[in-house]
């Protein structure tokens, strides 16, 4: 396969680059599941000087993937190069502070959206959930793959395909690959860890609840020389039935040993047993393989966790099968500095997608077209049995597979009207129903998780429809300046009184018991600001509280001094007086009465006038009563 070298700042990789390394001695691509992804190659120091392009930060394209050089070493035979997958360019970017709440898809998109500078990477995920975390002063690779990263919290398996990043629940398949192993074979190293095996459990539930039979046995208990017994605490189980169910699930997950198989095909091909294991040359990273262990007489499920591929021959040379363990390259701190990117910022996402599709189609080289059995195939080899990259078009639809003729077809348009794709870019989308997934804004600061029905605004404000709660980040500040349609605090002298005249309903508009007595109702004016407290609510211009707990407000502090000498008692009848504390009496102040449309007004003469619907009813002195129309008013200074 062709291996090309590009400038460090190159953004178009659909050409041959600076040089084609046609005389490489070796070239190996090694990828671990959720781990390292690197290229190692050796080239001679040729007379044409191709080797001089193999400098730090330049980019190599091998096995259809991009790798950036981070180390070179001259040897007697030539030059040795180490390069990391282009994904690790993200280790040079920076996240100042990002709060993530929602699905795995939303988490990945948030990390890629809140970087310190723009980049060409885009992400997708099929992982749901509604978790929350925060990343402060980390690079995106740490945020994705670190000990407390997205993979550690949300789970999933990483697919790094040049600038496309996918976090999938499972990136591989169980393709039915079955091998039988039970003896030492050159080329295969087997490691079995028995420490975690349990074939007989003594479960203990809440309040020392135990099973009537005490122990529960695995179906594999007789496959081992003796029972392997453990006591396990299931403190959430309150009934014997639930305790038995949990214990059985524990046995099913722990009655087989942890395993690791490292297969070296170069050595294995030298043995007569090679043909029994050659099927492992067709597996992909993340695939599930069944190993029939003849000594233990059990079938073990193993995952392909590492593949080493010869980029020159396009053949797998090493496969590692084992228990899946997430990992992160701890030594990767900041391998590449001063990354320069050239992006057309003035183009829309749709136009960029059109340009990219046009470039890929126009620059496609090679391939084989095969017509057979009512379908059309476009492949990277002539034989469907050996082809890896396959376009397949028949009566069922059109689909693309990167893992051979039998799929899976992750990009497809099928005859029943379905479209399957990782990325869909469109000018206008008209949908009667969007059922699932996460809808995210271009910046990534607004997302709607349709699976969990969660609205996330910049990681700062989150509405969860399941609990009908709104949560705010610690640095969110709510004030009247941030809230529209707020009530206007009265400041004009003729708009304030025992009840705020313009924006609080009269007692007659409130159903229920009669107005509270003067012991329950107080109002205070501090300067031009009103604080009003009664059984119906609190209306305030300035309110300071030491504690607000549940529905109880305690220890309310009103700023400013109160003068008890200037006090007006107003009411309808002597049994319904209300106290209004006033710092300074102002001519024209109004006090709404309990009678609809009635109010009392301070006159500049020092007396009080009684009005009904703005019609003067009577004038009374500083202390006095008025009786009229069956209604009595009391107003006096105290």
Q: What descriptive keywords fit this protein?
A:
single chain; 638 residues; mainly beta; 12-stranded mixed beta sheet; 7-stranded mixed beta sheet
Please indicate the percent range of residues in DSSP E strands (runs of 2 or more). 35-45%
Q: State the major sheet.
A: 12 strands, mixed
The chain-level structural class is mainly beta
End-to-end C-alpha gap = 101 Å
Radius of gyration: 38 Å
| Arithmetic mean pLDDT | 77
The overall strand count is 45
User: Can you give the helix content as a percent range?
Assistant: under 10%
Broad shape: globular
Secondary structure tally, helices: 7
> What ranges have pLDDT less than 50 throughout 5 or more consecutive residues?
324-346, 486-543, 551-584, 622-630
> What is the number of independent domains?
5
Describe it:
This protein has 638 residues and is mainly beta. The chain folds into 5 domains: 4-86, no CATH class; 93-171 and 440-474, no CATH class; 174-196 and 257-322, no CATH class; 364-420, no CATH class; 493-637, no CATH class. 9% of the residues lie in helices and 39% in strands. The protein has 7 helices and 45 strands. Strands 1, 3, 4, 5, 6, 7, 13, 14, 18, 19, 20 and 21 form a 12-stranded mixed beta sheet that branches. The protein has a 7-stranded mixed beta sheet with strand order 35-34-33-39-38-45-44, with no helix packed on it. A 6-stranded antiparallel beta sheet has the order 22-23-24-25-26-27, with no helix packed on it. Strand 36 and strand 37 (552-557) form a beta hairpin. The longest helix has 15 residues, at 240-254. The protein is globular, with a radius of gyration of 38 Å. Residues 324-346, 486-543, 551-584 and 622-630 have low confidence and may be disordered.
């Amino acid at each position: 396969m062709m291996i090309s070298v590009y400038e460090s700042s190159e953004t178009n990789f659909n050409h041959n680059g600076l040089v084609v390394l046609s005389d490489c001695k070796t070239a190996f691509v090694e990828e671990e599941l959720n781990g390292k992804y690197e290229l190692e190659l050796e080239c001679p120091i040729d007379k044409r000087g191709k080797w001089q392009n193999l400098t730090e930060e330049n980019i190599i394209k091998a096995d259809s993937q991009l790798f950036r050089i981070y180390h070179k070493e001259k040897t007697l035979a030539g030059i040795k190069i180490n390069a990391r997958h282009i994904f690790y360019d993200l280790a040079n970017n920076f996240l100042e502070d990002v709060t993530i709440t929602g699905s795995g898809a939303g988490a990945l998109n948030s990390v890629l959206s809140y970087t310190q500078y723009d980049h060409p990477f885009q992400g997708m995920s099929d992982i749901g959930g509604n978790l929350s975390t925060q990343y402060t002063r980390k690079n995106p690779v740490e945020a994705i793959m670190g000990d407390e990263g997205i993979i550690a919290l949300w789970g999933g398996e990483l697919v790094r395909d040049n600038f496309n990043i996918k976090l999938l629940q499972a990136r591989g398949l169980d393709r039915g690959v079955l091998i039988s192993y039970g003896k030492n074979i050159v080329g295969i190293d087997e490691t079995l860890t028995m420490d975690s095996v349990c074939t007989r459990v003594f479960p203990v539930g809440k309040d020392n609840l135990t099973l009537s039979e005490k122990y529960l046995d695995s179906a594999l208990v007789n496959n081992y020389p003796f029972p392997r017994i453990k006591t396990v605490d299931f403190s959430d189980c309150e009934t014997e039935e639930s305790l038995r169910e949990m214990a059985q699930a524990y046995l099913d997950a722990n009655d087989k040993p942890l395993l690791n198989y490292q297969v070296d095909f170069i050595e294995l091909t030298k043995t007569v047993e090679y043909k029994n294991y050659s099927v492992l040359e067709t597996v992909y990273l993340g695939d599930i393989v069944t190993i029939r262990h003849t000594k233990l007489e059990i079938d073990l499920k193993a995952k392909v966790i590492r593949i080493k591929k010869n980029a020159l021959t396009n053949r797998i040379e090493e496969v590692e099968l084992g228990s899946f363990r997430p990992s992160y390259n701890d030594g990767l701190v900041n391998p590449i500095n001063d990354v320069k990117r050239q992006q057309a910022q003035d183009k829309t996402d749709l136009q960029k997608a059109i340009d990219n599709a046009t470039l890929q189609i126009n620059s496609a080289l090679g391939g084989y077209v095969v017509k057979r059995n009512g379908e059309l195939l476009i492949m990277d080899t002539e034989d469907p049995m050996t082809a890896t990259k396959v376009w397949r078009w028949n009566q069922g639809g059109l689909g693309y597979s990167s893992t051979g003729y039998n799929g899976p077809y992750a990009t497809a348009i099928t005859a029943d009207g379905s479209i399957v794709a990782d990325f869909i870019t469109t000018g206008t989308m008209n949908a009667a129903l969007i059922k699932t997934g996460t809808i995210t804004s271009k910046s990534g600061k607004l997302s709607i998780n349709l699976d969990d029905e969660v609205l996330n605004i910049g990681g700062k404000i989150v509405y969860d429809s399941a609990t009908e709660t709104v949560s705010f980040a610690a640095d969110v500040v709510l004030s009247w300046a941030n809230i529209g349609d707020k009530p206007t605090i009265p400041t004009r002298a003729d708009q304030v009184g025992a009840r705020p005249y313009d924006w609080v309903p009269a007692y007659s508009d409130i159903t229920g018991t009669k107005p509270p007595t003067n012991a329950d109702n107080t109002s205070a004016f501090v300067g031009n600001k009103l604080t009003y407290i009664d059984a119906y609510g609190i209306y305030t211009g300035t309110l300071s509280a030491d504690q607000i707990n549940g529905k109880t407000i305690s220890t309310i502090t009103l700023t400013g001094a109160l003068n008890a000498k200037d006090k007006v008692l107003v009411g309808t009848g002597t049994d319904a007086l209300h106290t209004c504390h006033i710092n300074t009496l102002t001519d024209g102040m109004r006090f709404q009465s309990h009678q609809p449309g009635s109010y009392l007004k301070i006159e500049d003469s020092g007396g009080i006038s009684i009005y009904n619907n703005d019609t003067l009813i009577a004038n009374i002195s500083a202390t006095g009563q008025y009786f009229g129309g069956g209604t009595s008013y009391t107003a006096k200074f105290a």
